[in-house]
Design a protein that fits this description.
This protein is mainly alpha-helical and about 400 residues long. It is about 45% helix and about 10% strand. Helix 8 (about 200-210) packs across helix 10 (about 240-250). Bound molecules: zinc ion (ZN) (3 copies).
C-alpha cells in the first residue's frame, strides 16, 4: 500500500505523547489496509494533530528555501529583521516590533566539531544522540575527498531536483541505526516498510534517477558503502538492500524513521529494562509499526497538512466537519491534480505512489468511460511535469 503521508499521519496516534483521542487507527479491508478514523466530532478548521517529521522535512525545506535553519528541527536561525534585510537587499532595513520575532540567538548552539548550527542545546543533543555522532565530518566539512561529501557531490551530479538531499536522509537513517543500542530491532522496524516487490522498487528508482538508473544506483551504492558501511547493517549495502532503502526514501517524502515516533522508539531502545519487560515493549512497538500502514489518500480529502509554525511541525487540519467513525483522509494530489479526470488521477497515483485509488470520488466515476480522448492524452503529455511530482508534497506549505 502507498506509504507516504499516511506513515507520518499515524505516528502520533497514541504514541508520542501528543496523542489525540479524537482519532484511532482501524482496519478497513485487506486491500486498503488500515486507516485513521475520527472517534469524535472534529470541526472544520480544527487541528487534528501536530506531528514532527524530523529528517526528511528538513531536507526538503532546506532545498526549497535557502535560509539558515536548525540542522535538526528546521527552526529559522536568522532573525526576522535579518531575513527581511537579506530578502530586500537593504542592509539598513528595520522591522517594527522586534519583540515579536521569536528567534533567540542566545540559545543557538553549534556542533563543536563541524560547526553545523542548531537552534538550541536540546536540538544539538538530540541530533548527536540520534545520528550526528556518526555523520559529523569534524574539520573535514569542506573537504571534497571526505566520503560523505563525495556521496553528496555524486548525488548532486545526478541531480534529481526536488529531492536534493534524499541521499543524506538515507545516511541519517543508517546513522540512526548505527548509533542505536539494539540494531536488530531497528532493522526489523525499517524492513516492515520495505514491502514493495523488486519490480516496484525498480520502477521507483527508474523514476527518480532516469534511464541510466542502474549504473547510477550502483555508483551511489559504492560511495554510500565507502562512507557508512557497517557489518551489522550489511544487508542495506547489498544491491538489493540499497535499492529497497532508496525506494523507501523515494516514496516517502516526509520520511519514516524520522518522526517523533522514531525518537520515542529511540528513547525506548535506550531504557534499561528487565528482559521480560524489554520483550513486551519490543513486541508492542513491532505491532504498532504494523498497525501504521494506513492508506489514507482521497481525491476528496477532508483534512490537509501544513507547516504554520515555520518549523518542521506538521499540522493536520480538518477541511470540513468530520463525524465520529469517518475516516480522515488527506490528498497526495495537489488541488489542480484533483480536478483532473479519474484516469489522470489514477495515472499520477499509480506512478508515484503505486496504488489504485478507491475513494468515493473515484468509485462514483468508475462507471464513466475512461477518458482517453486525444485531448486528455495531449494534456497529459504536455501538462504533467513527470519528475516534479514525487517531491511535491511539501511545496504547498
Ligand atoms: Zn532546533
Ligand atoms: Zn558535527
Ligand atoms: Zn480517488
Amino acid at each position: 500500500m502507498a506509504a507516504s503521508m499516511c506513515d507520518v499521519f499515524s505516528f502520533c496516534v497514541g504514541v508520542a505523547g501528543q496523542a489525540r483521542s479524537a482519532v484511532e487507527v482501524r482496519f478497513v479491508s485487506s486491500a486498503k489496509g488500515k486507516g485513521l478514523f475520527a472517534t469524535q466530532l472534529i470541526r472544520k478548521g480544527e487541528t487534528i494533530f501536530v506531528e514532527r517529521p524530523l529528517v526528511a522535512a528538513q531536507f526538503l525545506w532546506n532545498a526549497l528555501y535557502r535560509y539558515r535553519a536548525c540542522d535538526h528541527c528546521l527552526r529559522a536561525l536568522e532573525k526576522a529583521e535579518e531575513n527581511a534585510q537579506r530578502l530586500t537587499g537593504k542592509p539598513g532595513q528595520v522591522l517594527p516590533h522586534p519583540e515579536l520575532c521569536t528567534v533567540c540567538k542566545d540559545l543557538h548552539q553549534n556542533c563543536p566539531h563541524c560547526q553545523v548550527m542548531y537552534c538550541s542545546a536540546e536540538c544539538q543533543l538530540a541530533a548527536a544522540e540520534q545520528y550526528h555522532r556518526v555523520l559529523c565530518p569534524g574539520p573535514s566539512q569542506d573537504d571534497p575527498l571526505h566520503p560523505l561529501n563525495k556521496l553528496q557531490e555524486a548525488w548532486r551530479s545526478i541531480h534529481y531536483p526536488p529531492e536534493t538531499a534524499s541521499i543524506m536522509l538515507m545516511a541519517r537513517m543508517v546513522a540512526t541505526v548505527k548509533q542505536a543500542k539494539d540494531k536488530d530491532r531497528w532493522i526489523r522496524l525499517f524492513s516492515q516498510f520495505c514491502n514493495k516487490t523488486a519490480n516496484e522498487e525498480e520502477e521507483i528508482v527508474h523514476k527518480l534517477l532516469g534511464d541510466k538508473f542502474k549504473g547510477q544506483l550502483e555508483f551511489l551504492r559504492k560511495l554510500f558503502t565507502e562512507a557508512l558501511y557497517e557489518e551489522a547493517l550489511s544487508q542495506w549495502f547489498t544491491p538489493d538492500g540499497f535499492r529497497s532503502l532508496f525506494a523507501l526514501v523515494g516514496t516517502n517524502g516526509q520520511g519514516i524513521g524520522t518522526s517523533s515516533l522514531s525518537q520515542w522508539v529511540h528513547a525506548c531502545d535506550a531504557l534499561e529494562l528487565k528482559p521480560q519487560d524489554r520483550e513486551q515493549l519490543d513486541a508492542f512497538i513491532d505491532q504498532l509499526y504494523k498497525d501504521i500502514e494506513a492508506g489514507n489518500h482521497s481525491c476528496v480529502p477532508n483534512a490537509e497538512t501544513s507547516f504554520p509554525e515555520n518549523n518542521f511541525l506538521l499540522h493536520v487540519t480538518a477541511l470540513e466537519d468530520i463525524k465520529p467513525g469517518e475516516e480522515i483522509c488527506i490528498s497526495y494530489l495537489d488541488c489542480c491534480q484533483r480536478e483532473r479526470s479519474r484516469h489522470s488521477r489514477h495515472k499520477i497515483l499509480r506512478e508515484n505512489y503505486l496504488f489504485v485509488c478507491s475513494c468515493p470520488k473515484c468509485l462514483a466515476e468508475a462507471d464513466e468511460p475512461n477518458v482517453t480522448s486525444e485531448e486528455e492524452e495531449e494534456e497529459e503529455e504536455e501538462g504533467e511535469p513527470e519528475d516534479a511530482e514525487l517531491g511535491d508534497e511539501m511545496t504547498d506549505v
